[in-house]
Amino acid sequence: MEVVQEVRVHGLKEALRALSAEALSRSEGLLVESLAKLSASRASSYSPKRTGKLAASISVRRLSGMRFSVTPGVSYWPYLEFGVRPFELNSRVYIQDVGFRHVHVHPGIRPHRFLRRAASESLRELGKLARSLLRERVV
């Protein structure tokens, strides 16, 4: 199962007009890559830490040009990101430090929204990232 959450940034070219066309495209690429890496780092820190596998599996991958993917590498991440409603479960379940118990209803999982939170907070830092990249490139 693949879930895609796309973030689009409009008006970036107008904000960076002072640069030449080549410097502009290079700066945009660096800015988008930096934004993706920042989102991945924050998603890793905001993710639930029961075993730490989810946080360790979050990676950044270049899809094409200026498109990047910030994706957890474990199969259960959508359940933690979006949550699960309570559902009937008529089986024996192992509960840590308790042992096997007969469970009739799974209580569900509340949505953690660690990826959404990381993306929105990283977007708030977009101005700072752009200024720091421009200082590095222009000076």
Helical content stands at: 40-55%
Order of helices and strands: HHHEEHEEHH
Could you describe the largest sheet, including whether it forms a barrel?
A: 2 strands, antiparallel
From the helix content, strand content and strand pairing, which structural class follows?
alpha+beta
Q: What's the helix and strand layout?
A:
Layout: H1 12-15, H2 21-46, H3 53-57, E1 59-64, E2 67-71, H4 77-82, E3 87-95, E4 99-106, H5 114-124, H6 126-138
Antiparallel strand pairs: 1-2, 3-4
Describe the structure.
- This protein has 139 residues and is α+β, with helices and mostly antiparallel strands.
- The chain has one domain.
- The chain is 47% helix and 20% strand.
- It has six helices and four strands; from the N terminus they run H-H-H-E-E-H-E-E-H-H.
- The strands form two sheets. The chain has a two-stranded antiparallel sheet.
- Strand 1 and strand 2 form a beta hairpin.
- Helix 2 crosses helix 5 and helix 2 packs across helix 6.
- The longest helix has 26 residues.
- It is elongated.
- The model has no long low-confidence stretch (mean pLDDT 81).
